[in-house]
Amino acid sequence: MINGTKLHQWLLQRADQHTRNLAIFSVGAVVFFAGIGIILYGENRLTPSLGQEVIVLIGFLLATLGGLAAIIGYLSLSLLRFFRFVNREKVKTPGSDINTDNT
Length: 103
Prior knowledge:
- By secondary structure, the protein is mainly α.
- It contains 3 helices and no strands.
């Protein structure tokens, strides 16, 4: 069960890194759209050849890697935050330990 505990701790730490998760999402989205742009450029502007296929392949790889990074960043922003909220320990409210009976 040690691996489960390590994974649990890693996920909780990952959920607290909001700016890094947003950066992963943003960079992934930019790389994804750059890859899609390269694919469209290769399909519409280049003559059919081996060079065109290589350029489209590079665009496909960029779009795939960027899409995966964007998905990881988005899931880290949304699902891990929810995971953190569900696993949060009960916090005592201030003043809850004050004796309210007047006897």
